[in-house]
Amino acid sequence: MAKSFYGIMRQAARSAERSYKRSLREHERAVRQAESQRKAQEREYLRRTKVADKEARLAYLRSREAQVSEMNEDLSRRVKELRSLLSLSPKSARPFDFVSLKKKYVPQTLDVSSVIGRKPEELRRESFVTPVLRPNLVARLLGGKAKYEAAVREAEENDTRRYEASVAEYRDNLADWCLREERERLRFEEAESARKKEVEEQNSAVDEFEQGYKGGLAQSVIEYFSLILDRSELPLDFPEGFRLAYVPESRQVVVEHLLPTLDIVPSVAEYSYVKAKDEIREKPRKKAEIKDLYETVIASTSLRIINEIFSSDAELVVASLVLNGIVDTVNPATGESIRPCIVSVRASKDEFSKIVLSRIDPVACLRNLGSVSKKPDELAPVRPIIEFDMADPRFVKELDILSGLESRPNIMELTPFEFEGLVTNLFSSMGLDTKQTRSSRDGGVDAVAFDQRPVLGGKVVIQAKRYKNTVGVAAVRDLYGTMMNEGANKGILVTTAGFGPDAFEFARDKPIELIDGSGLLYLLEQQNVEARIIMPP
Hints:
Layout: H1 2-49, H2 54-83, H3 112-116, H4 137-214, H5 218-230, E1 242-247, E2 252-258, E3 268-274, E4 279-284, H6 287-311, E5 320-326, E6 329-330, E7 337-338, E8 341-348, H7 349-353, H8 362-369, E9 370-372, H9 416-429, E10 433-436, E11 445-451, E12 458-465, H10 473-486, E13 490-495, H11 501-507, E14 512-515, H12 517-526
Parallel strand pairs: 2-5, 12-13, 13-14
Antiparallel strand pairs: 1-2, 3-4, 5-8, 6-7, 8-9, 10-11, 11-12
């Protein structure tokens, strides 16, 4: 129910918001175009007529200079907007109000007469009396009394017949009206009941959604932060698109978000008007300045996304966040569509809360959190800290009644020796020369692998922990110590559960890779090994 509701609500909310923004933008553009067209027509008129009058010539020159001034103001305003992205939208950096998703049921009343017409009016007998003119004294003396009495009797008979016929017609009309009134009332009550039920179901779905978020349910957490990112007020010409994943075991959110391309930065530094040639010239912006501004845009956008996620998390379901910034563009050399990752950073909530965004250098701050492309203007990619698909919650299935009927083995049911073999075979299949060592007492596996690639290869220490609880920093420290003792180039720690923020913090800037349960299942699937992880109660 919550998922279906969220899809509808999210689509409706996004459609309404985009429609509003689009109409507002189109209105502003129309106003500017109309004004620009008016000024252009005025300038063209002055230019064509070649008015000899000095004042007209000066007016034309002033209009051209004003046009250039306006163009330079637009440039300045655009650059200022790009440099102040971190302070553009404080509204989105707050918790989402679930009440705003709810509807209020307001009972409606039925106005029957407006639908089927007014109720037939009841007949009055006195309205069916035909007046007969009484004879005067002379007429009565001449025998007019008898004629008068006969006329009265005839009128009464006619009135009675007309009244009885009208009464029969009135009763038929009244019966028909009452029938239609009853049908209309039943339709109204059914519609009102359906409307009330719809409101109750929506509000119930909202409550379920809210409880799922507060309880750290993966799908609800993803939907919650999708709403947060949907309402983010980035500039309208920025690309829209993101993917979210949530790892409950380590309370980690993984965000893959589209970032703008280089053409978001104006290529013109300044406009100038040349009177002698009556033309507007463009002064190109320096490449170094374009690169600097683009790096600032990328860094500010990334920090805004991280800040919006952490600041809106009222229930503290997120302890750490990984952001992969993707550019959706075209390779100019081949014409193929490419999506290089130019930003990949990890931050814990505690660590990020110490950053004063109003006083930082966005580029330096972002580089301190992880990997940022040294040449983003050339789309030089960086290696993602976590591949998004490795954190996709679809790879970890929740326990349900039918889980025992699945053919995929549950890794948690493997013996320590079998688990050692699974991990060893996995990395062997991935191209490493892996040798299994003796299992440790805690049921983990230690393996030594060799990456045969030149320059990038070397000795790799692999340790796996078949845990149901979050892996803390102690295990990462132990792995690092083993690496030092073995003289290894890299360490890999694999777990069936997740990692805590302190583990991620310790591993940062060290040649250590942490692979949680969903990541393990993803790697196994890439090697055509079907498995699942179902934690014991």
